[in-house]
Amino acid sequence: MQFKFHMPTKAYFGTGCISQNSSELALLGKQALIVTGGHSARESGALTDICNELTALNIGYAVFDKVENNPSTDTVKAGGAEAKRIGADFIVGIGGGSPLDASKAVAVLAVNEIEPVELFTNKFTTKPLPIVAIPTTAGTGSEVTPYCILTRNDLQTKVSFGNADTFPSIAFLDPRYTESQPFGVTVNTAVDAFSHCLEGYLGKRRTPASDILALEGISLFGRCLGDLKAAKITYEHRENLLYMSMLGGVVISHTGTTIVHGAGYNLTYFKGIPHGKANGFLMTEYMRFNYDYARDRIDNVMKLLKMGNLDEFGEAMTDLLGEAPCLDEAEIAQYAAITMTQRSTATNIRPVAVTDIAEILRRI
Ligand SMILES: [Fe+2]
Questions:
Q1: Do 355 and 335 fall within a single domain?
Q2: Distance of CA 196 from the midpoint of ligand 1 (Å)
């Protein structure tokens, strides 16, 4: 048994966790830049809560609320400039995956004289500013990962960076902040969190420790799945989904993702399909493709989800997400080629060729 387990983010979970632990903020400095998308941070109450605490602690702040879905390198460049302008000591990211990821890029750019494209080298002269991450969706797990995923229009896909210094210092996970999310977003993001647990559990870089967390996350998804299909969401479900999302984040911090994410980015970039939904469309065929290489594990996943087989799982995902888009052969060839440029093909348990990705896309 040989593995590394590293989770440097201090995570506080539960209702009121910001106000109960606000003394943590005072340790980070006197000036903060809040990085957000503008909508969910306000509607969830998270922005008000953090601003109240910063004010009470006499910490100055500015709000950069220009982060779009699937943030671009231009956006994080502007955020980095704003952090420099106000002399930020730390960054507070609030929102779904996009603002949380963007906050990591902003934290690096605030203290390094580099262009955003150089972020992907993962080598920074100066350590990024400390990051406080406050999720308003239960999906990305970005609050406990080092990853920042940005849209590269030059490469026509999403590309990630991240190293041991880009983990958030602190994560505040308050399930109430996810209550204002529309049902569709709740489902899509839950499927993303499940995908992190699933791909981590089946991927090449899994470890005994990541397996424990992945299995707990998969069980939690199984416990919520029936009610999600029936559009029934209670506070307890919100808690379970946010916990699953956090576990999934810790899992992929160790294992990375695999071809579900790699191929799914194409559906998001070219078809505008939300990230979690794109993953969900690919999952059944992903497991079918890998079945002979991970038979016991996939059978175990089905057992934890209380599913008889992959056909039944596929039907459940269609009930939850609707039908996948039809792709023509030119699109399939293009997406498969782009997927092969992603690191995530190397982590798949079964060796992957471009023709395999094309066949998975054809089958969905
Ligand atoms: Fe994801």
A1: yes
A2: 6
- Assess whether 210 and 251 both reside in one domain: yes
Distance 191 CA to ligand 1 centre (A): 9
Q: End of a domain among 161, 178, 195?
A: 178
Question: Per the structure, how many domains does the chain have?
Answer: 2
Domain final position from 111, 144, 178: 178
Both 39 and 166 in one domain: the answer is yes
| Sign of CA pseudo-dihedral 62, 64, 65, 69 | negative
Q: Which residues make beta-bridge pairs with 11?
A: 171
CA of 113 to the centre of ligand 1 (A): 29
Query: Read out DSSP for 25-72?
Result: HHTT-SEEEEEE-SSHHHHTSHHHHHHHHHHHTT-EEEEE--PPSS-B
CA of 128 relative to ligand 1 center, distance in Å: 23
- Is residue 156 located within the same domain as residue 105? yes
Q: How far is the CA of 149 from the centre of ligand 1 (A)?
A: 9
In angstroms, the CA 192 to CA 94 distance is 18
pLDDT tens for the chain, 364 residues long, are 899 999 999 999 999 999 999 999 999 999 999 999 978 889 999 999 999 999 999 999 999 999 998 899 999 999 999 999 999 999 999 999 999 999 999 999 999 999 999 999 999 999 999 999 999 999 999 999 999 999 888 888 888 899 999 999 999 999 999 999 999 999 999 999 999 999 999 999 999 999 999 999 999 999 999 999 999 999 999 999 999 999 999 999 999 999 999 999 999 999 999 999 999 999 999 999 999 999 999 999 999 999 999 999 999 999 999 999 999 999 999 999 999 998 888 999 999 999 999 999 999 9
Tell me the CA–centroid distance for residue 279 and ligand 1, in Å: 8
Round to whole Å and give the CA distance between 48 and 42. 7
CA of 281 to the centre of ligand 1 (A): 13
4 within some domain: no
Q: What does the alpha-carbon distance between residue 330 and residue 83 come to, in Å, rounded to a whole number?
A: 43
> Range of 294's domain?
183-363
Q: How much distance in Å is there from the Cα of 261 to the middle of ligand 1?
A: 6
